[in-house]
Write a structure and sequence with these properties.
alpha+beta; 398 residues; 12 helices; eight-stranded antiparallel beta barrel; disordered N terminus; Porin; 38% helix
């Protein structure tokens, strides 16, 4: 019996050890969370404690994230980290990192796997923008050197994007570097300098207008009113404007047009389609040029053509004698143009000069035609009115 009892005890011990081994195998077989997952969870906890205004807990999670960061992973973006320093009023920590954040650091950071896309940055940015005045007050009360105080002020403006005027921002950075030429912060501050576009007195513009035209004299009885597309390209220097325009339309005939050839009359019948186009060049001068409106009269000359559509442009083949109804000629032009201006938002951020604009263009004038010299039924001129979109962009100097 003693032997049986001993065997039973050994068997029981073996079963317990087997169970423990299986339990250990199950524990070790469970997947370990990845570094990226841990970073994502820690950022979520940091954001929750930040929103709860719990700096103690937030600092713990911030430290955890900084410990997770390595050569492969970025747990906090550098501007997120610096905003957290501002929130905690540990300005010294931010200044130490700013002084060391050169091009090599920026490049090394760009090679890392970036933090998860969450709303942590937006939350930090919104809260710090609300408390920006408190930050400036706390900064003035602290024990800082003049250099540190100026750098911290610049960094608050930079991180919260309060430096909206690029030219003013560049002047502030340059003033600081002149005052502290050997400052350890100059490397980073100079990297924030912006490209300021300096508009010249030269500009390019282009427009697309819809034109309505009214004929005079015999043309009024020969053609329906003109509805056409007007495309234009221009160059401006100071207040002078040089414009090239192209207009194309197709009014119908309202009466027969006759051509006598070899004692035989050929007719271009009423209600038939036409193809009318003109191209001209004019020179104008700005009479009014304000931030909201621009008005300039112009004079010029051009070339026009009126003819039947070709067979490729018409549904039905045209008779051979339609070659007799092709009328071309030069003309004089007088016009006045008005631009209603709208300026681009965030122009500098999009590398658009401040003085550039887009808007509504109104154009009206008269074309003095000489088509009547070729056929009496085409004697007359064209009064036109156009409206559409215009883009006016000033050229910049380096």
């Amino acid at each position: 019996m003693k032997y049986y009892a001993l065997l039973f005890i050994l068997f029981s011990l073996w079963m317990d050890l087997s169970a423990q081994t299986d339990s250990l195998r199950q524990k070790t077989s469970s997947p370990k969370p990845s570094t990226y997952t841990l970073i994502k969870q820690a950022r979520k906890q940091l954001k929750a404690n930040f929103l709860a205004d719990n700096p103690g807990e937030a600092l713990i999670w911030m430290d955890s994230l900084m410990e997770m960061e390595n050569e492969k992973y970025a747990a906090l973006a550098w501007d997120e980290r610096w905003m957290l320093y501002l929130w905690q009023e540990t300005f010294g920590n931010m200044l130490e990192e700013v002084a060391a954040f050169d091009e090599n650091e920026r490049y090394a950071y760009s090679l890392k796997i970036q933090p998860p896309e969450d709303s942590l940055y937006e939350v930090l940015d919104s809260r710090l923008y609300e408390m920006r005045f408190d930050l400036f007050n706390d900064l003035n009360k602290g024990f800082f050197t003049e250099e540190e105080r100026l750098v911290t002020t610049l960094m608050i403006d930079y991180l919260l994007r309060l430096n909206v005027d690029s030219e003013d921002w560049n002047n502030r950075i340059q003033t600081f570097s002149h005052k502290f030429p050997n400052s350890r912060f100059n490397t980073f501050l100079k990297s924030t300098l912006r490209t300021v576009l300096k508009p010249t007195q030269n500009a390019l513009n282009m427009h697309m207008l819809f034109e309505s035209g009214t004929w005079t004299d015999e043309l009024q009885r020969t053609l329906n009113p003109l509805f056409a597309l007007d495309l234009g390209l221009g160059y401006s220097h100071k207040r002078w404007n040089y414009n090239f325009n192209f207009t194309i339309g197709g009014p119908r005939l309202t009466r027969d047009v006759a051509e006598l050839r070899d004692s035989f009359a050929y007719f271009w019948p009423k209600k038939d389609h036409t193809l009318y186009f003109n191209t001209d060049f004019d020179i104008g001068y700005d009479l009014i040029h304000t931030p909201k409106i621009r008005i300039f009269p112009a004079i010029g000359a051009g070339y026009c053509s009126l003819r039947p559509p070709s067979s490729d442009e018409s549904d039905n083949p045209q008779p051979d004698y339609y070659v007799f109804f092709k009328y071309n000629g030069f003309y004089w032009l007088g016009s006045i143009t008005a631009d209603i201006k709208f300026h681009f938002k965030n122009a500098e951020a999009n590398l658009i000069p401040k003085t550039s604009y887009y808007g509504v263009r109104l154009r009206m004038g008269v074309r003095k035609l000489y088509l009547g010299n070729q056929n009496w039924a085409l004697a007359g001129n064209l009064f036109f009115f156009s409206v559409g979109y215009n883009l006016h962009s000033f050229l910049t100097a380096p």
